[in-house]
Model the fold of this input.
Amino acid sequence: MPYPVTIRDVEHLEDLLSEPSAEAIDAIRATAGDIVILGVAGKMGPTLARMARRALDAAGVSARVIGVARFSDPGQQQALEQQGIETIRCDLLDQNSLARLPDAPNVIFMAGRKFGSTGDESYTWAMNTLLPALVCERYRASRIAAFSTGNVYGLTPIGRGGSREHDQPAPVGEYAQSCLGRERMFDYFSRRDSIPVALLRLNYATEMRYGLLADLAAQVLRREPIDLTMGYFNVIWQADANAMALAALAHTSSPPLIVNLAGEEELSVRETCTELARMMGVDVSFTAREAPDALLSNGAIGRTLLGAPRVGAAQLLAWTADWAMRGGASLGKPTHFASRSGQF
Done:
């Protein structure tokens, strides 16, 4: 589909973020049945749920999309229901509540914790490592596509294409360690109970209101010096990450499929901010120098298996600069991308 030069407003943005890919529609058709999305109230969950609904409709499949979360924001729950998504309010760590959730052949696991982990590590481990074990016990008869993170790899030298799925994990900090624990739980139960699973190592999803590009654009627009220490990154349009997650339902396996969700380009912070500054008509300054390594993932397997990204870095930069200059909405949740200590 042709993409617009500018994204008008939040409604237009969310429509773009929930547009299913051909691969997502094909997967939904092949795995026909209800879809339960655990942790639907996060940054990606609402648009993924809406995409699942649209993919089911496009595939001609009569099935439910059921979003599960604590829903601390009642307005978010109402908005999902207006899009044809059933919602259930649930504390997933409460095993009695988890047991009462409806059965479904398809489960997308999005629950987890990153920010606030430092100083409250035990809750992070409960969400990221204990909860996957509980979910596997509850949904042992389902196929599960579970989000993970490229942070499990640790830092990798620049210029080599990024970490690949067969690389040995080297997580830095308790958040990344607990995410590797998440993967180990899904792997254990997948093998023990023959649960088909896909582990999706995401690095990094972005949209106009949130993400690494939004953070950089805001800093450039405020004329803040840009720290170059974490000098390189991958980025993927959130709609493409959503679509790849849905497509992964058709590729779950036991032992689990492990696949990176990452954009094609290895981007330079210096060059990206210079281009953002040019687009926004401001000056930019930098501090420090680029380290020889960064958090980088190679997404070649994912692009082949789950569909190539539909939006590239140049389009994302243009949209981000335009959105920032017009004072577009922000979720107010910085990514802390530059952290090299693993503390969030």
